[in-house]
Specification:
It is built from 6 helices and 12 strands. The protein is an alpha/beta fold. It has a single domain, classed as DHBP synthase. β1 and β2 form a beta hairpin. The protein is globular and about 45 Å long. The N terminus is likely disordered.
Length: 197
Amino acid sequence: MTKTNLNTISVENDNLEDIIAVLDSGGLILYPTDTIWGIGCDATNPEAVQKVYELKKRALSKPCILLVDTMDTAKNYVEEVHPRMQNLLQYHTRPLTVIYPIAKNLPPISMDSSGSVAIRIALGGFAQQLLRAYGKPLIATSANLSNEPFPSNFGEISSSIIQGVDYVVKNQQFDKEQKEPSVIVKIDSEGGFEFLM
């Protein structure tokens, strides 16, 4: 994937060039996803993904969600896209994370031990603009320590998480809307959809 020509693109108070420099160096960002605030990094960089697990104190057996900007980008990281997936995404009212059975072009730490991967397409907002500029998938795990409640807005994020990343996105920090995680659906072995939450 090639990156968008940035020419110092700004999204409100953030300079995407600065964020991308952090991602390229293997750093972590704290950013508003299309759902709740998340900890992110380059999902194709295993050392960066390892830092996410260490910051969250999360077991490696619990895979993280990946965020991409379009279905075409998702196709670079999964073996096969369900033929009805586009319709499901188009008509689903909440953001939808899909667990695809076979991942590709990703390090093992960015997928489940079974070889599956959870991917969500960001449908607009800051996250989609960042993903379009970066050209690679980002980790999008909730901005909390493992086994603690997820933050529904920026004000609920703990200082240990804020201090543990290399860049804190300014966009949407003062948004007090209570956000929720995405709906998760798994594609089973027979090609059916199983809604998990």
